[in-house]
Amino acid sequence: MGYLIKGGIVITEKGEIPADVAIDNQRISAVGSDLVDSSERVTLDARGKYVLPGVIDAHTHFALRSRGTITADDFESGTKAAACGGVTTVIDFADQIPGMSLADAAKARIDEAKPYVATDFALHMTITKAPENPDSELRDLLESGVGAVKLFTTYRAAGYLLEKNDFIKVSKAAHRAGLLVTVHAEDNDLVENLESRMKAKGETAPAYHAVSRPGEAEASAIRNTASILGEAGLPVYFVHVSSGPGLEAVREARKKGYTVYAETSPHYLTLTSNLYAQDNAREFIMTPPLRDSCDIDALWNGVLNGEFDVIATDHCAFTRRQKAEGTSCFDTLPGIPGVETLLPLVHHEGVVRRGMRLSEIARMLSYNPAKLFGLYPRKGTITPGADADVVIFDPNLRKTITSDSQHSKAGYTPYEGMTVQGYPTTVLVRGKVVYDNGTFLGAQGSGRFIASKGRLSRG
Fold it and tell me: Distance of CA 191 to CAs 118, 186, 220, 344, 365, Å?
């Protein structure tokens, strides 16, 4: 069965055009004015609504095994929540597994996810130790369909930090193989030294989380990493840039001629560190931490000026019970839910409140993730031949975000009580309706793994 989406405003990374969209055989077959209906298609009325390319959340953590536990959302609940918010593809992570090649670890992760996903998915690979034969392993990894690696400059105690020599070795091998290097950037020495001083003074409560990992730690790591990789001629993508100083470090690197891509997240654009003064402070602990209102202003200036390439959620959900197992800001499980609210929050806070161009939503939430991570032109665009991943979005529909309205197994949302203007009404994944007017219609296991073609040029 096909569809004809009639009378909407199609939003692309270049602008807005009144157009109909025809869908046949899971793909977009035509985009144009007054397309002729067919008895083989069902008509979807999009008058007064936007027709957006399906959102690609380029940073999620479903069924993540870390720190002796597993995240609340598995691939079933996580992708259900994604679909209900207009996210049609998620890019999750495969972890390096001792004694297993990177490609085999990726295959194991793909096999784990396939029976459960309701949206399509792709993968990044987290590398915490340099392989013995990095060039061949990373070439094989790309052959397996993984187009990016993630490296950490922090979390030594948790086993994630990749020491400098290995960091450079892996980065160069990844680049030669055609993979994009993505980095969680915080200065580990600065963070560890600060932690030691704070523990000595008894400053360990969740209320101290923002103090324990300051914006300068992020900025320092961005400057250092961008310099090392930039001087070697390697592009780098910084995940979840959270602070004004972090964004300024990105600017500095670009002025030096380095190729730097930057991602930020909805929580850094909406929530402040004042929440750590509340009794439920643990529910807002993620890394990097929330910042001040001046950082929110700085980040939004970056978004509105086109300095960010991607907005992604870093969805890493834990239940209140899991969060409560932490005794301090240093051992509370870091992460929050967010995949379902990505599109509504960016539209409300960006377009409605700050006059952001609609094309920027398509650019940062769909087109650029597809381009940067090797999924374009199959994903990220409404053009003939692309997968029919489409969001019909009512810009006037108002909804209040509540725990009860969300599909995450976290059992809470950090955006509790926020009212947003603009919400998806119908969501299609490869031409199948998976969400319609408040009801999830997708099926467990209906999603597919989308193999990356590797690092592509900036959108």
Answer: 38, 8, 11, 34, 31
384-441 pLDDT, tens per residue?
Answer: 999 999 999 999 999 999 999 999 999 999 999 999 999 999 999 999 999 999 999 9
Torsion of CA 218, 265, 92, 84, to 10 degrees: 170
Tokens representing 117 are 């996903």
Model pTM greater than 0.70? Answer: yes
Per the structure block, which two tokens stand in for 340? 């379902």
Domains observed in the chain: 2-52+383-397+413-440 (2.30.40.10), 55-372 (3.20.20.140)
